[in-house]
Task: inverse folding
């Protein structure tokens, strides 16, 4: 084997080595991700520096990069929990969360890549059981859902504080009661609604009766005042005024002065 052939062999080996080295020394971090660097000969997980951002990075081949998604993530859990009186309730809850980007190294070091199963799921389940255990099925079925959602969020957040996770929101998507309990609650609600409707109709009838009574009393008082004011002299004067107006009419008539009852004129005949 001549010198030139040996040189080509050496160059080929070096090229292969460089290709392997570069393939092991580069990492591409995608959109919505961060990379946690692990230094094999440099103290392990890097926690005192920001995680690697999106894009292309050169990394020593003996080190490793762990990729974490930093977008908002969703976790839904279907749980069987107990109400305050010991009845089983099926509940479907959802939370939104993100890892704490500034402490991604600590999250990897202390919780690991499966941190969702290790800390978030247990936190949600524990918080939900604690909150639901304070309410009766009737309260869970009624308008308490918004309050329950907020309490589950706060209880879960309290557990996840200092766990390198940012909790965004919590939602109770469905609450399923045992059929017998649900039917009993619905019957009770219908009865309460019917009672309220009856009270409304009764109140309305009472108010209408009061209105009619007040109206009748007003008319009676008005008639009393009018009757008290109509003396004989006033009536005669009104009759005379009416006679004068009639006498001005173009219709043929005969007026007998002073021949009517109480001395009022009598009008005879017209066209």
Result:
């Amino acid at each position: 084997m001549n010198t030139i052939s040996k040189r080509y062999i050496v160059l080929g080996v070096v090229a292969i080595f460089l290709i392997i080295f570069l393939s092991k020394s580069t990492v591409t971090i995608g959109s919505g991700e961060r990379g946690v660097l692990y230094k094999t000969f440099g103290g392990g997980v890097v926690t005192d520096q920001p995680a690697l951002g999106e894009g292309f990075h050169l990394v020593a081949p003996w080190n490793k990069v762990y990729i974490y998604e930093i977008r908002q993530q969703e976790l839904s859990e279907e749980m069987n929990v107990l109400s305050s009186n010991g009845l089983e309730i099926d509940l479907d809850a959802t939370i939104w969360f993100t890892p704490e980007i500034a402490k991604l190294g600590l999250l990897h070091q202390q919780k690991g890549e499966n941190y969702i199963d290790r800390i978030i799921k247990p936190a949600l389940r524990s918080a939900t059981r604690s909150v639901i255990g304070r309410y009766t099925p009737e309260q869970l079925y009624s308008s308490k859902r918004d309050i329950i959602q907020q309490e589950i969020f706060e209880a879960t957040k309290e557990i996840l504080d200092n766990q390198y996770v940012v909790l965004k929101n919590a939602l109770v998507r469905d609450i399923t009661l045992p059929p017998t309990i649900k039917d009993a609650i619905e019957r009770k609600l219908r009865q309460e609604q019917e009672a309220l409707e009856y009270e409304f109709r009764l109140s309305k009838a009472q108010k209408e009766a009061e209105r009619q009574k007040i109206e009748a009393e007003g008319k009676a008082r008005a008639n009393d005042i009018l009757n008290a004011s109509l003396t004989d002299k006033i009536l005669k004067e009104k009759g005379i005024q009416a006679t004068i107006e009639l006498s001005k009419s173009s219709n043929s008539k005969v007026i007998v002065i002073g021949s009517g009852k109480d001395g009022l004129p009598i009008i005879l005949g017209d066209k």
